[in-house]
Specification:
alpha/beta; Alkaline Phosphatase, subunit A; eight-stranded mixed β-sheet; about 15% strand
Length: about 475
């Protein structure tokens, strides 16, 4: 199972050492981020990693009709859609799915708080998404119910064909899980620190763009304003190794223009009217809680966070950082009730095109994932917990979400069945740019790396699974 396969006692390398390196063939440990290949210490060919984080959709919701193997068949092959399980035609109680498209995505949110998701998962039975769970999000007095026919929704090629093409031309993980059951912000934190920080959206960063500084009739916020000090993130590890890091956040410039302690401005390119689409209109604001690094004092309101428009300028100017964290505005990150799927697909495609049409195309790996499942149905049970919270209680995994690897380093057409989560990306960044993994001492020391998605002949080093 997931935990056993990652522990040193099960025959894996010491998490503090480079994954999979044959250091003995190089006369000892290779220096820095180099790894031993055929008796020679060498660097990875991956010089830049761009991570794009979209929102609130499960693997089944987006790829349940891309995959072709019968549900429950557990295919072992790894090439193409015949090697991953399609979503079942009915969920455990017999309900059929609705079509997930721009219209049904925009129509309503789904409850994706931890209390609800744990009921939906039902100990791995995955049988209470449509019926059987009680309660629901009571924000502002009403909200989606835990169980709803709209939770079982599957997208076809008309809605997510762009992502299907990326999977065909790149690599797709079909056992990649949100690291904690529940909402967006708690899951995003694992991409920064690989460890539990809080549950659901219970904290918001004490930084520019804090929506607690707004008076929004359509939004219910009760989070604690938070700024962590003395905590090390993957960005700190990379910077300490002489690498570079930057967050490219859509709408950030207009939040900066409003200033700290002020409600971030509605972006000038907001596509939704305050009259016809009031909720979506309010979502045309930069939201600092979508940026995990904004919670940490060493990055909040610093030059490490810039507007998304700066990405194209940095690419054109030869200044793409080693690690770029990219976040779309809420109205184009696919979040139900405030974003169309097609707008999110277009955002991701635009980002990829920016990289592919630049001198960075041959040295950059683009990773696309979703923060959490958003309350949508998925038929694969999550693995056992490996993290603990502040009370030393197990942190429950949530549903699967997609992970795509794109660019010349992706193993074309591959479907990986290796169990992974957001901390796997952190482990990979350590391995690729620093050398020793598990430096944060959290889930990054326990999880699988992302090597099953990568072509070792292109990377120049063997990135472990």
């Amino acid at each position: 199972m997931f935990v056993c396969c990652m522990l040193v006692a099960c025959g894996h390398h010491d998490p503090a050492m480079p994954d999979g390196s044959d250091d003995a063939g190089c006369g000892g440990a290779c220096p820095g981020a180099q790894h031993c290949v055929a008796g020679t210490c060498r660097d990875s060919n991956i010089q830049h990693v761009v991570l794009v984080v979209e929102e609130n959709h499960t693997f089944d919701a987006y790829f349940g009709r891309y995959c072709q193997a019968p549900a429950g068949s557990n295919p072992t092959c790894t090439t193409g859609p015949a090697c991953c399980e399609r979503a079942p035609d009915t969920e455990p109680h017999g309900a059929s799915p609705i079509v997930l498209d721009d219209s049904s995505n925009f129509a309503e949110d789904r409850d994706h708080l931890q209390a609800c998701e744990l009921q939906q998962l039902d100990g791995g039975a995955m049988d209470k998404f449509v019926t059987g769970a009680s309660g629901g999000d009571t924000c502002a007095g009403s909200g989606p119910s835990c169980s709803s026919a709209n939770n079982f929704a599957l997208a076809g090629s008309a809605a997510v064909g762009g992502y299907w093409t990326l999977a065909t031309n790149g690599a797709l993980a079909d056992r990649y899980f949100q690291p904690i059951a529940g909402g967006t912000s708690s899951n995003d934190m694992y991409l920064a620190i690989a460890h539990y920080q809080f549950t659901d959206n219970d904290a918001m960063p004490d930084a520019i763009g804090n929506l607690l500084d707004c008076t929004l009739d359509s939004v219910c916020l009760s989070a604690t304003r938070t700024k962590y000090t003395g905590r090390t993130t993957i960005a700190d590890v990379l910077l300490g190794a002489g690498k570079t890091f930057k967050v490219y956040a859509d709408g950030y410039a207009e939040a900066v223009a409003a200033g700290y302690g002020k409600c971030p401005n509605i972006t000038s390119d907001c596509q939704y009217s305050a009259i016809s689409h009031p909720i979506a209109h309010q979502a045309c604001r930069y939201d600092a809680s979508d940026i995990p690094f904004a919670y940490y004092a060493q990055f909040a309101d610093t030059s490490s966070i810039v507007d998304y428009a700066q990405l194209a300028q940095d690419v054109a100017g030869g200044a793409l950082p080693s690690f770029a964290y990219v976040k779309a505005l809420t109205t184009r990150n696919e979040h139900p009730n405030v974003s169309n799927i097609s707008d999110g697909v277009a955002f991701v495609q635009g980002l990829i095109q920016t990289i592919e049409q630049s001198p960075y195309a041959s040295s950059t790996l683009v990773l696309v994932t979703w923060d959490e499942g958003g309350g949508f149905f998925d038929h694969i049970a999550p693995p056992p917990s490996i993290d603990t919270d502040d009370a030393n209680a197990p942190v429950p995994y949530g549903t699967r979400v997609p992970l795509l690897a794109i660019g010349p380093f992706a193993k074309t057409g591959t479907v990986s069945h290796v169990t992974m989560e957001h901390s796997s990306i952190v482990r990979f960044l350590e391995y690729n740019f620093v050398g020793p993994v598990g430096q944060l001492g959290h889930n990054d020391a326990k999880v699988h790396n992302i090597g099953s998605l990568l072509d070792s002949s292109a990377t120049g080093v063997i990135v472990p699974e």
